[in-house]
Amino acid sequence: MTTPLLVSLAALIAVAFAVLGASKIRAVPSMQARAAHVGFSVGAYQRIGVLEVAGAAGVLLGLAIPPLGVLAAAGLLLLMVGALGAHLRQHDGVAELAPALVVTVLLVAYLWLAFGKI
Questions:
Q1: Which among 1, 55, 56, 103 could disulfide-bond with 14, CB atoms 3.0 to 4.6 Å apart, if both were Cys?
Q2: pTM of this prediction?
Q3: pLDDT tens digits for range 101-112
Q4: What burial letters (b/e) apply to 47-77, b meaning 16+ CB within 10 Å?
């Protein structure tokens, strides 16, 4: 059984990762700059974007198939751990870390709520 909070978290996560992932896949200039900043090729960043879009879809599908949502959120959380590590290696400040930190918090909250629903 899904709760309104779980649905809201899933929607926020899905929108965030769908938008960011699509921007990476399309290699928009701002994403090209971010890729270069953290030491990734544009192709590698595009592959990360594919994983983000797939994870967004998985989190939404998880509202109907809870184990899928948990697996998708866990995968996205691993991506965010990598993103945070990449930003920390570059000695980025709070402004650069904030998006990854915010979605990490959303993912942890989603997993905490969803884990009991499996």
A1: 56
A2: 0.93
A3: 999 999 999 999
A4: ebbebbbebbbbbbebbeebebbbebbebbb
